[in-house]
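Hey Z.,

So I finally got round to the flavin-adenine dinucleotide thing we talked about over coffee. Here's the setup:
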Amino acid sequence: MITRRRLLASSLLTIPGMALSSEAASGFPWRNWSGHLVANPAGRFAPGSEDELVNWLCKTSGQVRPVGAGHSFSPLVPTNGHLVITDRLSGIVSHDPDTLQAEIYAGTRLGNAGAPLWQLGQAMPNLPDIDRQTIAGALATSTHGTGRGLKSLSGYVTGMRLVTPGGDVLDLDKNHEYLPAAAVSLGAFGFVTRARFQNREIFNLRTRTWTEKTASILDRFDDLCDDWQHFEMMPLLHSDYSLVIAHQEADEDPMPVEEEDDGGEFLQLIESTPVLLRGALINSLAGDIEPTETIQPSWQALTNLRFDRFNEMEYSVPVESGPECLAEILQLIKDNNVDVVMPLEYRIIDADDTWLSMFSGGPRVSISVHRLAHENFESLFNLVEPVFWKYEGRPHWGKVHSLGYSELRQLYPRLDDFVELQRELDPQGRMLNSHLRKLLRPMSS
Ligand SMILES: Cc1cc2nc3c(=O)[nH]c(=O)nc-3n(C[C@H](O)[C@H](O)[C@H](O)COP(=O)(O)OP(=O)(O)OC[C@H]3O[C@@H](n4cnc5c(N)ncnc54)[C@H](O)[C@@H]3O)c2cc1C
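And the result:
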């Protein structure tokens, strides 16, 4: 049986981190999760409290970048200045059983928040497909899961604490004018130390996976999104089929998860088959793939383990453009005989009113393209990226893309407001590495 776990295989491990002493000199390079981004920071600092962070910022000068779990594929983090590591700012700060809100330290991995929140009777309404990201890292890039009517994580933020690079501590409560900007900040405003979330009561999810022709799924997409609270499909390249992963709330108790057949043999067969014959092979076998079903607590059902590393490009397009954009990408990959085994990913996310959220202004579908980490991703990503542009695609801030300020300005009506606020909070430009300058400054400045 082929499973999502195997198809988008990856790993539990994160970046080769630092020991958690509060300050460390340079001497060893930093790498992101997939390994393609490398930096040689002048030093690393891991504050154990907000006060420590404030004192350190007031004593230092020069470029400084916050890092979470290093799971971004775009170069938001790399710096030759100092890296601020948030691992020691971890855990639940406080919770309110009446409003179902909880405040969580910025460096908490999503997966380390699930169980303690559950014990407090709370669950996040939606989650991305892994849980290794930190709270602040995930918010900074508008990280999302899938489900019609369900927003990205930033859409559920009701408050934040931000330390500016000058050492000022800002309490951004629900009505603060900066909150809709800071909820997707690209790590450009300063250091988030904690964030408050609107959660919901705990819930179990029935997860069903099956294979179906991509055209049939797209025909039924509206109904499927009605039937399943969280719905996504993963088109199998060169073939007519997709793998579907869908979750619906279940009244039943969780059931023990059986050891999965990881589909390794099936994938090896695909990999060892010449590209030109691959579609026919998958089409002939896809019907034999058994559906699976499990019931788990939401925070476990929605996230997966990763065994192999990869790089990823993802754009989101308006929901109505999704099918056409997807069809064009599938055809392009087929026409060019691109030898890629990892499937695409197609998800749906509701709108929020955060200035730089990929989903500001209306619901969107996201389409992701993957390439295993040891393979060169540039030719594939360069091939498909212009297709996204045709459909008003917005790049995922944390994934590979080539856009800069002038293009992003066309896609985000509030980009200039964001830039102005960034200058106000960081007048010396301490937070800006070369990638952020490309995103937030015109070419000449
Ligand atoms: C295997 C894998 C699966 C993924 N699945 C999904 C998915 O399902 N959905 C999705 O939307 N994305 C997904 N992503 C992308 C990922 O969620 C984002 O790139 C996310 O931003 C990574 O979080 P992080 O903690 O690793 O942050 P990092 O990558 O370390 O940093 C990201 C940004 O956050 C900033 N930052 C970190 N901490 C702070 C802080 N305390 N204060 C201010 N800024 C801060 C950094 O400076 C940087 O700008 C996936 C990535 C991988 C590798």
